[in-house]
C-alpha cells in the first residue's frame, strides 16, 4: 500500500504556505516603508542640527546616531524577510515536486497491480475491502466495484471471510489454499494466498488476499509427470519385450508340437482343455507385451491428408453390430464431405477413435446413445478440429478421474488399461489434446487435432507438448 495525503491535507498545506508567503511580503513592505520614514527623519534632524546653537548640537548628534542604527537594523530585517521569502518559495517548490513524485509512484503502483496476472484484494482489520486491482473483476466476474463493501460480498463461490479468519489464526498469519469456481468454460482452480497487511510501524492494519488461476499450470504439471513416465518406459519396453517375447515364442512352438503329438483319438478331453488354456494365456501375454511396446515406443508418424468423416464412418460400420447387441444407438453429428482434410496418421487416429467408441459402448451395458460429433476449434492459436465421443452411461467415478490416462489403469475385469494411455500418447504425437468431461449423465471424450501438421511439435520423435487435460 502506498500512502498519499488526502485532498484536505494538501489544501491545508497550501493554505499555510501561502499565508506564510503573504505575511513575509507584507512584513517586507512595512519594513521598507519604515526605512523610508527613517531617511526622511534623518534629513529633518540634520536640518534641525544646522539651526541649533553649538552647545545643543551634541545631544542632537546622539539622536542622529540612533536613527542610523535603526536604519541599519531595518536593512537587516529586510534581508531576513527576503531570505525567508526565498525559503518559502523553495519549500513550496519542494512540496510540489514531492507531490508530483508521489502521484507518479501511485500511478506506477496502480499500473503494476492492474497488469498482474493474479487478483489482489486488500482489507482493513474489520474485513472490509479497501482496494483491488482490475484482475479481481475479470477472475470473479464482478459487476460492481467491491471497494468499501464487506469481503463476503465479493463472491459467493469462495468463503473469503472464513479463509481470512483461518489465516489470521495461524502462527504467521499466512495461509495458502486452492478453491474451485465455475465459469462458462468449465471449472477453474484458484490458488488463494492471504497474508497480513502492515504499516510503516509494522502494526497489522488488515490483510492482503491474492487469487491466481492455476488450472492450466496443474494440467501442465500433470502432463509433465506423465511424460516423465513415458520416457522411462521406452528402455524398459525394449528389454521387457526381448526377455519375455522370445521365451513365449519358444513356449508357444513347443506347445503346438506337443499338441500335434497328442492329437490321437484316445486323447483325454482334459488334456485338450489344458492345452487350450496354455495357448490362450500365452497369446494373452503376447498381446499385453505388444500393447506395452506400442505405448512405450517412440515412432515416426505417417502423416497424410485425411477426411475425418471417412474414418468415423468406417469405425461406426465396424462397431455397429456390437452396439446393436447392447441396444446402443450410434449417432453421427457435425461431419460433412465438404470439411477440410486433416493432416494425420490415419492408422493411429483410427486406433484412437475405435478405442473411444468401444469404451463408450461398453459404458452403456443397459443401452443408450453413442454420439460422435465434430466442431471447429483453436489449438495454440491455429485452426483445429475437435471430435467428441459422448455416451449416456453413468460417468467415471470421481476416484478414477485423475488416473484415466495412466498406463495399466482400468476398471474392466478383462481390460489391460493401455487403451486410453496409448490414445492420449497418439493424440499428443499429433500436437493435439485429449480430454474429457464426465458426470452422472455420461462421459464425453474430446480429441482436438491441428488441421495443419506443421503445428504439431516434434512429431518425428513422438514427443509433443503436454496440452491434454481433463475436467470434471
Describe the model:
The protein has 9 helices and 12 strands. By secondary structure, it is α+β, with helices and mostly antiparallel strands. Helix 1 runs antiparallel to helix 2 (57-115), helix 7 packs parallel to helix 8 and helix 8 (346-362) runs antiparallel to helix 9 (419-429). Its EC number is 2.7.13.3. It catalyses: ATP + protein L-histidine = ADP + protein N-phospho-L-histidine.
Give the gist of this structure.
Its EC number is 2.7.13.3. This protein has helices spanning about 5-50, 55-115, 135-140, 160-170, 215-260, 270-295, 310-325, 345-360, 420-430; strands at about 120-125, 130, 175-185, 185-200, 205-215, 305, 330-335, 340-345, 370-380, 380-390, 435-440, 440-450. The protein is built from 9 helices and 12 strands.
